[in-house]
Amino acid sequence: MSVEVWTYIIVGITFAAYIYIGYSNRVRDTKGFYVAGQGVPAVANGAAIAADWMSAASFISMAGLISFLGYDGAIYLMGWTGGYVLLALLLAPYLRKFGKYTVPDFVGDRYYSQFARVLAAVATVIVSLTYVAGQMRGVGIVFSRFLGVPINIGVLIGMVVVAIFAVLGGMKGITWTQVAQYSVLIVAYLIPAIAIGIVITGIPIPQLAFTFGDIVPKLNMAQLSHDFAVEYTQPFQTKPMLDVLAITLALMFGTAGLPHVITRFYTVPSVRAARYSAGWALLFIAILYTTAPAVATFARYNLFQTLDDAVITNITPGEKQDLYELAYSGEVKDANGDPVFEAGAPVTWATSWQETGLLAFVDKNDDGKIFFGPGTAFSPTKNFKSPNADSENETYFDRDIIVLANPEVAQLAPFVIALVAAGGLAAALSTASGLLLAMSSAVSHDIYFRVIKPSASERDRMIAGRSMILVAVILAGYFGIRPPGFVGQVVAIAFGLAAASNFPPILLGIFDKRTNARGAISGLVVGFGFTLIMVLLMKSVQIFGTSEPIIKSFYGISAEGIGTIGMLLNLIIAYTVSHLTAPPPQEIQEMVENVRLPSGAGQAAAH
Fold first, then answer.
1. Same structural domain for residues 351 and 437?
2. 311 Cα distance to chain centroid
3. Which three-class secondary structure state does DSSP give residue 86?
4. Rounded to 10 degrees, what is the CA torsion of 532, 535, 541, 546?
């Protein structure tokens, strides 16, 4: 059977399972809708956290970033994993003991201010909306290639599926759906990684193949590294050191401020269970994140072997571009010396991906070959009829297709290729559903119920929550069709916004009882406002359609790292204003003390 047929079968089965799980776990009360009735076992919650946190950026985009950036791409590994450890050890147990449903709930009660609650809710919506735009783009990419539909239609299909189990099941339905989605995505990630590792290095464990195989030295050799003019393991070649540091910190502290992940620690029955679920999640996350560098390296090696000096055999005029039919220019061998790609064999995967518009070629020097190297192949952007004369590169390769295309490049079995497509969808949809619920709870619970209409009945709150999910799905679909960048970049920006908004008031709210409402509000307005404005100015081409970015960088710091500056502004202003004004009420200070104390502390001394 073809890849398309296998994809229909595997994706159809997994989608049917997700919808069934969501429907069978549907809820009728707000506690079940927002925190799954606080009855989720620690192991299951750990798997749900992993699926919720490992989005399309982790599954689809991260390996592509590492593959293209080399050493500098490690910022995503360090930032995201380091941030999760920070969240699990430093914040999650205290937030669970506080006992509220959402981050705005914590901010509103800790800082005894409805205005602070509304600010935190607005920040949650903006962070979640930015994050979910990347997920919807990932869904569109998968459907576009493997189901043969336009990216826009793929986004619409994903919107419908997410809305069904998010609206019906709330947090309870989403939690158990995410357990299933984690199982799908991790299997889909590991199987091709193992298979390709065996072919290239002869070692069946990807982590060992990456460490002890000879693939990295080969990439650093002149004949393979010349394409990007830098060694694969050479640091600070694609990004300046300051930007690398800023992005790493933004991803780390942004992880600790993600509203949809923090909510996960409220779904378990106790603080002890929250700690255990954090440990399980770290294990589940580590399986994928230790495999990602190997996948990135395998993909880079295969792409260079396949595309560098590929021979053009035919050109078919298309609506968006000319579709080049390519053939392998030379014989490529595996670790055992056996041919993997025969000279003259067609590069079939390249033709398929060209139809999505995410891969394109131009023979600038008319030599009948394709050069895959540094620089922009087309001018101004993705204009396939207008090659960029300033660059020798003849290939446009979207970074988001690395993981999805890698099994096809390596000529794995069609069912494995289809399984990867199902894994990509599972990663995108699992995170999208959690983000939609975070947006829903911010508006329906924190603004509608806690501020606008405190007398709202259980039924009214459920209606408001489900209505907000539908609105959020529509907004997410729009930004998924018109995202401000590729998946990993959009998600990194969302993390920066979370670092500049949620992390400082949570950190100070737990560990500094002197921080008051004035300080928290001042810090939020300045830190989050600065970050949001800078992102809009730096991404003005994608968001506003300007010919050039209004601001290219902030002293060398990109849009992905600007959240670090916003976070520092937030922390400094909140701390300074709080210590220059009146302290919080005594009951608030006592509440902070109690949240930090372990359960039962002081009882032994009393006896």
1. no
2. 36
3. helix
4. 60
Please give the helix or strand (H or E) that residue 315 lies within, else none: strand 310-317
Task: Find where tokens 């970033």 sit.
Answer: 65
The answer to whether 388 touches 378, Cβ cutoff 8 Å, is yes
pLDDT digits (tens, 9 = 90+) for 133-149: 888 888 888 888 877 77
For residue 330, what are the domain limits? 310-409
Q: How confident is the model at residue 604 (pLDDT cuts 50, 70, 90)?
A: very low
Do 355 and 211 reside in the same domain of the chain?
A: no
pLDDT-derived band of residue 335, with 50, 70 and 90 as boundaries? low
The answer on pLDDT for 513 being more than 70 is yes
CA distance 483 to 485: 5
Q: Does 523 reside within a domain?
A: no
Amino acid (one-letter) located at 414? P
140 and 222 inside one domain: yes
State how far the alpha carbon of 141 is from the alpha carbons of 151, 300, 303, 422, 604, in Å: 6, 20, 19, 12, 59
Q: Are 447 and 118 in contact (CB under 8 A)?
A: yes
506: pLDDT strictly greater than 50: yes
Instruction: Measure the CA angle with vertex 110, ends 106 and 114; round to 5°.
Output: 80
Q: Which of 128, 101, 414, 436 is nearest to 265 (CA)?
A: 101
Place of tokens 């950026």: 57
Q: Which of 377, 409, 441 finishes a domain?
A: 409
Q: What is the pLDDT of residues 75-101, one digit of tens each?
A: 888 888 888 888 877 787 787 777 766
Helix axes 517-538, 487-501, angle to 10 degrees: 160
Domain total in the chain: 2
314 alpha-carbon distance from chain centroid: 37
Could you give the C-alpha distances from 8 to 195, 409, 429, in angstroms and in order? 23, 21, 17
Q: Indicate the SS3 state at residue 302.
A: helix
Same domain as 469, residue 340: no
More confident residue, 398 or 123: 123
- DSSP one-letter code for 203: -
| Alpha helices (H) along 512-561 | 517-538, 540-544
Each residue's pLDDT tens digit, 355-370: 777 888 888 888 888 8
Q: Do 294 and 210 touch, CB atoms closer than 8 A? A: yes
Q: Please answer whether residues 509 and 571 qualify as being in contact, where contact means their C-beta atoms are separated by less than 8 angstroms.
A: no
Query: Which residue's structure tokens are 């069946």?
Result: 204
Domain identity same for 403 and 442? no
Q: C-alpha 2: how far from its chain's center?
A: 30
Angle (nearest 5°) at CA 380 between 379 and 381: 95
